[in-house]
Amino acid sequence: MKKTTVIAFLILLGWSSSLHAQTNFDPGRKQAIVSLALEKVKDLSKYISIIGNKDTQFSEAQRVMDRAEELFAADSEMGVSSLSSEEVTYYKVREYFERLMALNYDRVEIKWYDIHYVSDLEQQPDGTYVGVITIYQRFEGTSKDGMSYRDTTKKDITIYVKKKETQIAGRIIEFWDVLLGDIRVTETSA
Questions:
Q1: What are phi and psi of 128, to 5 degrees?
Q2: Which residue intervals of 24-77 are DSSP H helices?
């Protein structure tokens, strides 16, 4: 776990005792949750770059895929689009990573930018809060034979903020955690 994620986790732990009685987050608590969500999205961006990089060893790519999967809620899907089709295809997270690693390019470069939180957290009947983070992804694949493809995709990432429990020194501690959900393609351009 990265140092910044651990710090955000500890901040959330410290606030957990008063959060559980609230139905709305005060601005400071909400900002801590949003920061944790953005940190997880940035981690995913790094993982995708490593998995897609043709210089990454297979064993390292497998390890990174395992780490990346931990960021997601069960059964989450990731959308894939291209300039040649208006159809968006969705894959389970692990399958998306495996397909990314197997792309038929000699060099793949994937960059995420303009990552921003765009929606308020909305409480669901089960107590989970749901929000959306929007990112732009620049994909570029090239082959030694001159084949080249590039596009920019706008994607919406669903986030889930859920109350969890852990035991520390015999005490049950409640805290809020963020999981990523489906990643929906909303726009693809050259």
A1: -75, 145
A2: 27-52, 58-69
* DSSP class of 73: -
Nearest to 96 by CA among 112, 117, 114, 75: 75
CA-CA distances (angstroms) from residue 107 to 83, 101, 102, 116, 182?
19, 11, 11, 28, 27
Q: Where are the domains of the chain?
A: 3-189
Long-range contacts of 97-100 (CB under 8 A, 24+ apart): 97/48, 97/51, 97/65, 97/68, 97/69, 98/65, 100/48, 100/51, 100/52
Alpha-carbon gap, residue 71 to 157, rounded angstroms? 12
What is the pLDDT tens value at each position of the chain, 190 positions in all? Answer: 554 444 344 444 443 333 333 346 778 888 888 899 999 999 999 999 999 999 999 999 999 999 999 999 999 999 999 999 999 999 999 999 999 999 999 999 999 999 988 788 899 999 999 999 999 999 999 999 999 999 999 999 999 999 899 999 999 998 889 999 999 999 999 9
Tell whether domain 3-189 is in CATH 3.10.450: yes
> Which amino acid is residue 34, in one-letter code?
V
Strands 85-92 and 107-117 turn out to be unpaired
